[in-house]
Amino acid sequence: MKFGELDKKDYIVIPFVLLYFYIIVTSVLDLPILGSFLFNNKIISWIGIAFCIIGLILFLLSLIAFGKSFRVGIDKDHPGELITSGVFSISRNPIYSAFLFILSGIFLVIPNWILLLYLIVGFWFINRQVLREEGSLEEIYGDEYNRYRKKVRRYL
């Protein structure tokens, strides 16, 4: 696995991740949780579980399509090939789409106001990262990436 460059703003994610897992663990173990549920609906909970499963499957299919070219972030020194096959033929960002499915699904299962905030902030962080990566991909791959971008949507 390769890691690309990080921005100082990327480290703000750490406290959000810790609180996010705290909320999930306290909900699963039926411990006191921060905030109250916004609604309680079994059908919506099952839809949330389906979103999580779709997200996990999409994530695994993305890793398979990436193969040995998998990297985290932007690695301009060793970019590898532009992956356009598999799930990358229907979304330029299937891994981020998977994360959005999972974030949405967890919120639907545990509809807490804090997780709603996480969902909104998560969408913002993911979109911010995608925009950063798109600029780098255009710089690295040029016309090849521009043709791919015109043909394939950003998210699922």
TrEMBL record:
It is found in: Endomembrane system. GO terms for molecular function: methyltransferase activity. InterPro entries: Phopholipid_MeTrfase (IPR007318). The keyword Transferase applies. Keywords: Membrane, Methyltransferase, Transferase, Transmembrane, Transmembrane helix. It comes from the Bacteria. The chain crosses the membrane at residues 12-37, 43-66, 98-126. The keyword Transmembrane applies. Coiled coil: none annotated. It is a multi-pass membrane protein. GO terms for biological process: methylation. GO terms for cellular component: endomembrane system. This is Protein-S-isoprenylcysteine O-methyltransferase Ste14. It comes from Sporosarcina newyorkensis.
